[in-house]
Amino acid sequence: MIRTDSVVKRHGALVAVDDVTIDIRPGLTAVIGPNGAGKSTLLSAIGRLVGVDRGAIAVDDLDVRTTHTRELARRLAILRQDNHLAIRLSVDDLVAYGRFPHGGSGRSAEDRVQVERAIELLDLGAVRGRFLDELSGGQRQRAFVAMALAQDTDHLLLDEPLNNLDPRHAVALMRLLRRLADERRMTVVVVLHDINVAAQYADDIVAMRDGRVEHHGPVSEVVTDERLAALYDTPARVAEINGRRVVLWE
Questions:
Q1: In this structure, what are the phi and psi dihedrals at residue 246, rounded to the nearest 5 degrees?
Q2: Helix (H, G, I), strand (E, B), or coil: what is residue 191?
């Protein structure tokens, strides 16, 4: 369980996250909203990549602000939108970095099990020995997701993980996240711009605008004509195909 209580984060005069109080339960939660809504900032605050100006955040009842970094990293993995490294790494080396919170260098028996599992799950076997700067954007993105999975946590935060992915790999990743949420009862939080992907795979949706949470609940409650039209200032029509909601922008 992830809890935020009255969280505020400012960037100078701009209030990026404005008094956000939510409980995120195990399962797959998608965070949606227009550009500048505060989605990425909220995710970064939960993962302690940025500090907050007010409020509290807890992961499994651990205070994110005061918990030791290694202990927090054993509970929660986070992947940002932009990932830049100052050193040249192979895919294997990058994925092994995910094992550092567990005290390993990526070489113990358990480390290798988790690294191999992550590489297999993200379909990276054919490029595992190549350097990141030799890969396509989509391959690099999958390598960073594999690193987060190798961390082997119960909470996974991914900020726009479908960037640069072709349809095959985007669908494969969302199916994987859905499976992890179901089989391992993980808490998976994903920032998405594609509302149809969010509606198809998520249990709950957090809809943000201007730093505030406008709606938070099951897909059936949030993905409606009226709520999406107001959220994005764009007329929307929600249809159902094979029991799934599909958004048509008008």
A1: -125, 130
A2: strand
As a whole number of angstroms, the distance between CA 100 and CA 199 comes to 34
104: confidence class by pLDDT, cuts 50, 70, 90: low
CA–CA–CA angle 86, 91, 97 (5° rounding): 65
Distance CA(227)–CA(236), nearest Å, equals 9
What ranges do the domains of the chain cover?
Answer: 2-81+154-249
Burial class (CB in 10 A: 0-12, 13-18, 19+), 187: buried
In this predicted structure, the answer to whether residue 249 has a pLDDT above a threshold of 80 is yes
Residue 154 near residue 61 (C-beta atoms within 8 A): no
CATH architecture of 2-81+154-249: 3-Layer(aba) Sandwich (3.40)
What pLDDT score was predicted for residue 86? Answer: 65
| H/E element, 168 | helix 167-183
Per the structure block, which two tokens stand in for 45? 């605050």
